[in-house]
């Protein structure tokens, strides 16, 4: 039964206008600024930037470190996922591995660098325990460790989720056919995962290439393009036009990466039926995988352990007397508490309005009979938001809304977060809504209910599990993001990640670690609450 879809058309218009104003307009503004030079249009800015001192080397540095990090992250993540899904290791060990592997996602990337400094620096915890410094933490090696910590959780989740849908019965078939262990591994696990591996490498490369937090803390003299962009825009002598050029150049590898992801996605192997079989016994396999996985998660625990340790000593490394003074000082500082409250408020509003936006967009593509061209507009918008790095989006917002009523407001931070993280929540909602009974709206209409009442009474209650998951996704990411918001905060709207960057200049690491702990505790609490509500709703639907 066809309907007028009046409500859906209203939602569509709202979403189109929203992204036209807060995605298309800033992007166009950024592009125009990059070509504007001395009251005329041209490529002079591009020539100046590209031929500038060490720019090409800096770009190559970014590509090099990002690619190496992406490959290593994918390899390590595979070992972790393989240990959980294809070994007979202790179930508690598997649970610990799965939990610790994703822990870094709950902290801002800028904190990773400080944790590395206090772990492996000249006065670091690991250095003190071993009696010598293992390596120079500033530059390539420090960046590599930071990027690995950043991307392993993403790669692990991607590979682990794919492994859950690999049919293990083919392992038995392979062995019956007389294949050796390597051929069985290749044919039943590695080959089906090739698409996922490539996706992981591309995704991790994109994240490393566009991250600002880690280079800001441990980059040292090893310049990467994110650092150049920051210095160009917010350095001693800001240059918005050249900054726009750097942002556009940073955007190009991102576009290539996301395009590659979309192409590879078509070649992923999917099984219509999943069979669970008893895994073959192999003490060597189980031991090696368990040791590698335990060492990996132990390294993560050690690095992040300093965040929980340093704030509770009087003056590391010279006075390690236990104290609560550092924590008390932060909580007694009204400015720091205000910054924390700003972050929580911004994250909550981002979560609520971001979820509503993603839900509305998903209703159009998954639960409507609107024209396919209309749906492609939404799909294209989601793809676009996934393509633009946080730093580029933040700069675009700065240039587009500087001097407007949105300038230096919480609204611009919230909107920026909604746009920045829109793609994943939208896809989560779309997949959820697509699996629901397609005839609900028609049946309800035959019974006299309008579309809106059907959505409120039938569709939304069945989508609550995913809605809670989306709320959690938006909240956590809004709490940890630094790349986008660093350009659009002010003293009045300062959020906690931008404050951490500011505290770095004054070497106030105790305050940095206490604030980082606050972020971690807040995100874990939010994740627990949203997951509890989601699981509760899931059980309710099953019953």
Structural commentary:
The chain is mainly α and 543 residues long. The protein has a domain at 1-42 and 324-543: MetI-like fold. The chain is built from 24 helices and four strands. It has helices at residues 6-35, 44-50, 55-86, 91-101, 109-120, 125-130, 140-163, 169-176, 181-190, 194-210, 213-218, 225-234, 240-265, 283-309, 325-332, 334-366, 372-387, 390-401, 410-420, 423-434, 440-446, 451-480, 496-505, 509-542; strands at 36-37, 40-41, 313-315, 319-322. It has a two-stranded antiparallel sheet. Strands 3-4 form a two-stranded antiparallel ribbon. The longest helix has 34 residues, at 509-542. The radius of gyration is 25 Å and the shape is globular.
CATH-scheme architecture of the domain at 1-42 and 324-543? Orthogonal Bundle
Indicate the radius of gyration in whole angstroms.
25 Å
CATH names the topology of the domain at 1-42 and 324-543 as MetI-like fold
Strand order of the largest sheet: 1-2
**Sheet with the most strands?**
2 strands, antiparallel
Gap from first CA to last CA: 31 Å
CATH superfamily of the domain at 1-42 and 324-543: MetI-like
Report the portion of residues in β strands: under 5%
What is the ordering of alpha helices and beta strands? Answer: HEEHHHHHHHHHHHHHEEHHHHHHHHHH
Helix content: over 70%
| Class per helix and strand makeup | mainly alpha
What would the principal axes of the Cα set say about the shape? globular
Number of strands: 4
- Overall pLDDT: 86
Oligomer: single chain
Number of helices: 24
* Uncertain segments: none
- Class of the domain at 1-42 and 324-543 in CATH? Mainly Alpha
């Amino acid at each position: 039964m066809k309907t007028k879809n009046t409500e859906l058309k209203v939602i569509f218009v709202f979403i189109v206008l929203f992204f036209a104003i807060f995605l298309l307009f800033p992007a166009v503004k950024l592009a125009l600024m990059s070509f504007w030079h001395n009251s005329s249009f041209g490529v002079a800015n591009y020539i100046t930037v590209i031929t500038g001192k060490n720019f090409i080397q800096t770009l190559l540095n970014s590509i090099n470190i990002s690619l190496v990090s992406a490959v290593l992250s994918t390899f390590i993540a595979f070992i972790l996922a393989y240990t959980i899904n294809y070994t007979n290791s202790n179930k508690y060990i598997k649970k610990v591995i799965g939990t610790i592997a994703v822990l870094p996602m709950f902290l801002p990337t800028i904190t990773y660098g400080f944790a590395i400094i206090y772990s492996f620096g000249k006065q670091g915890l690991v250095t003190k325990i071993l009696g010598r410094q293992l390596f120079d933490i500033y530059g390539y090696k420090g960046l590599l460790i930071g990027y690995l910590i950043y991307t392993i959780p993403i790669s692990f989740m991607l590979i682990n989720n794919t492994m859950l849908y690999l049919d293990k019965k083919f392992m038995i078939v392979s062995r019956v056919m007389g294949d050796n262990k390597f051929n069985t591994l290749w044919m039943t696990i590695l080959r089906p995962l090739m698409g996922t591996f490539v996706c992981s490498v591309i995704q991790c490369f994109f994240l490393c290439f566009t991250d600002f937090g880690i280079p800001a803390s441990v980059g040292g003299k090893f310049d990467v393009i994110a650092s150049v962009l920051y210095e160009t825009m917010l350095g001693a002598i800001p240059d918005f036009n050249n900054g726009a050029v750097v942002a556009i150049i940073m955007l190009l590898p991102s576009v290539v990466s996301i395009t590659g992801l979309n192409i590879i996605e078509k070649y992923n192997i999917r099984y219509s039926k999943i069979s669970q079989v008893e895994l073959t016994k192999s003490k060597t396999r189980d031991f090696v995988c368990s040791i590698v996985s335990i060492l990996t998660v132990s390294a993560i625990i050690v690095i992040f352990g300093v965040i929980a340790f340093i704030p509770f000593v009087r003056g590391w490394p010279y006075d390690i007397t236990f104290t609560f003074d550092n924590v008390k000082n932060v909580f007694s500082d009204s400015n720091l508490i205000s910054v924390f409250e700003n972050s929580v408020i911004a994250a909550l509003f981002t979560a609520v309005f971001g979820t509503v936006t993603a839900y509305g967009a998903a209703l159009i593509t998954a639960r409507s009979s609107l024209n396919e061209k209309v749906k492609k507009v939404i799909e294209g918008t989601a793809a676009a938001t996934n393509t633009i790095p946080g730093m580029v989006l933040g700069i675009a917002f700065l240039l587009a809304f500087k001097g407007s009523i949105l300038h230096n407001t919480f609204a611009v931070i919230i909107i920026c977060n909604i746009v920045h993280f829109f793609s994943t929540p939208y896809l989560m909602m779309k997949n959820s809504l697509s699996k629901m009974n397609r005839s609900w709206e028609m049946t309800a209409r035959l019974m006299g209910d309008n579309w809106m009442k059907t959505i409120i009474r039938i569709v939304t209650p069945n989508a609550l599990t995913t809605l809670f998951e989306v709320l959690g996704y938006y909240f956590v990411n809004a709490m940890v993001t630094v790349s986008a918001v660093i350009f659009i905060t002010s003293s009045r709207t300062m959020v906690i990640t931008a404050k951490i960057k500011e505290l770095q200049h004054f070497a106030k690491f105790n305050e940095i670690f206490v604030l980082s702990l606050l972020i971690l505790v807040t995100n874990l609490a939010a994740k627990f609450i949203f997951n509890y509500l989601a699981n509760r709703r899931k059980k309710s639907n099953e019953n």
